[in-house]
Amino acid sequence: MKKVLIADDELLVRIGLKTTIDWEKNGFSIVGEAQNGKEAIELFDRYDPDILITDIRMPIIDGLQLIQTLQKKKKNLKSIILTHYDDFAYAQKAIKLGASEYILKHNLSSEELLGILKRLSLEISSAEGETSRQPAEPSVLPYQSSLEQILEKSYLSAVGKHPLKDLLDKNSLSVEYPSFFILFGKLIYNSDKEIDMRENTLIKNMSKSLLLRDNSRYAEISSEENLLLLFNIDFLTDNPEAEQLEYALSLEKHLQQFLEIDMIFGISRTSKDVYEIPLLLDQARTAAERHYFDGSKTIFFYNSLEETHPVACSVDYNGISEHVDTLDCSRLHDYIDAVFQTVYPSYDINSVNKIFIDFISFARILYFKKHSASDTEVVEKKFDYSNFWKLDSFDSIKKYVHDTYDFIFASSGSRKSLYSAVIAKSIAYIKRNYMRNISLEEVAASAEISKSYLSLLFKQETGIKFSDFLANYRIEQSKKLILETNCKVYEIAEHVGFDNPYYFSRVFKDRVGMSCKEFKNKHHANDASSL
């Protein structure tokens, strides 16, 4: 029996939690209720609970402080956060502090709460070495787990009808709702927000809170950059696409609003045949890939796609070599444009990828013909084929090839440029505007490129993320103001683009290793000793 402590200043929420599920029947006992963090700590010391369910905002001691305090007392304590949408930033912080899960209050259901509690209970038992003493798992998997297995096997390998039938028979799967469809989400690359979808608890929990409905079941798996959702649904209207769009728009809105994550979504056709799930996955993935050719949208339906027509297009290596040897930039760029124009009408991303690899691999050969491997790490990043999947549009892919050959031309001259024209222009913009609240998006617009492309190129050429470069530059400018003026800290913060002087002070200390005052005193002491 796992012990649970509830902390929430709303009486109705505490009552709701106690009556939502049959606690003892499911292996849990509520050992205490607290209406603030202080009471929760006292109850924790008295009853030593295994699981804490807490609100974020409470009087005296809030949920964040409570989690931080109790984690120090009991490292393997599992915490579930109850939150509203407007507390989401706090939920993010709570996860970083060690919270295990969060639930949006308005979507709280017995099914979701019990599922989370059982998972946390197994984690606790496993950590305590009790796994062997747990009752054997039933041979028939729960419905959602079966769907997840099907989705995972369909994603990782080409699952045919017979292997899928074997899996369904093994799990004795009985379909609950008449229709299936798949939503495929592709993360838009941003080096400032390097996210592994497989490990991001917030994204997984957000999808649970937003997508659980009475008329559907869904399964979710993630790869490093993709989110896959399989729905088994009973559509409420005779317009399935409108309902599918509502799911996608809801997820897109909250990912942007709360996590500042941009995603592209592809939606498959609907099917009443469970054996067509691998086909639905291919359709959803193909639909998501159409964003490369149409940057005006973020949600794509497979039903609305024009057919793809793969094209065989080869690259003239001799012609490229001649243009590079004669430093004929203009004719080489015309040739690159012509090749890409040949593959564009195909709407086939694999054809575009092949051309990209052909161009980049030959650029690498040309570079190392004339240069030693002294700058290997930086250069290899530029010639890495996987950069293709970090670019967010056909135009960005083409521009990357253009910029790579510009890099070849620049490195062939007598004076090698430190940065490409795009990054040099972006850095100049930062230096002119660092005192304002500028963003990656604004700087990208000034360079006339997408923010994902600037993010990729910036890290390649400078070795650090855009946000780190901007922060470092601001701190360097603040050092001058500290030593050369009598400005107050809040004035210096404002001068170098920080809205919050406390945040500025923290960033300064993190990057310099001392406070503004310590920095000033140290340099004045050094100046005095040198006289």
TrEMBL record:
Every Response regulatory domain range: 3-120
Gene3D superfamilies for the chain: 3.40.50.2300, Homeodomain-like (1.10.10.60)
Pfam families (UniProt xref): HTH_18, Response_reg
Residue ranges of domain HTH araC/xylS-type in the record: 424-522
UniProt-annotated location(s): Cytoplasm
GO cellular component: cytoplasm
Keyword Phosphoprotein: yes
Residues carrying 4-aspartylphosphate: 55
Keyword vocabulary terms for this entry: Cytoplasm, DNA-binding, Phosphoprotein, Transcription, Transcription regulation, Two-component regulatory system
UniProt GO molecular function: DNA-binding transcription factor activity; sequence-specific DNA binding
Protein name: Stage 0 sporulation protein A homolog
Organism for this UniProt entry: Anaerotalea alkaliphila
Organism lineage: Bacteria, Bacillati, Bacillota, Clostridia, Eubacteriales
